[in-house]
Amino acid sequence: MLTIGTVVLTVEDIDRAGAFWRAALRYVNRSEPSDDWVILDPPYKTSWDAPGASIALSVTGYPQHYPPRIHLDLYAEDQEAEVRRLLALGAQEVDWHQYPPDADWIVLADTEGNRFCVVDTGPRSAA
Hints:
alpha/beta, 2 helices, 4-stranded mixed sheet, single chain
């Protein structure tokens, strides 16, 4: 049986990206980062094989490709507040015009241009 253990994001500035993702997800370094690699874990994760997906940041030296082939979906009960918080941490709004009328997600990019969606999981009001 397979499970997702770590999602790896390519970055150019590992310090900046690490600071963003630690603050965004409230994750912690699994161990001391190197110059080109760090794994970030949920704070409750006590070993590499414990439940909970990790994020690794890897400096590879090649540029990002658009559109990206993989992205993260971050679930938020208060989407508006989380988007404001992430923008304050350094996320960027993505100029993307393909939202359907009933979209429950907003596309952002981290400090390295890696795209992610903030999905509204809060209760829907009746229209």
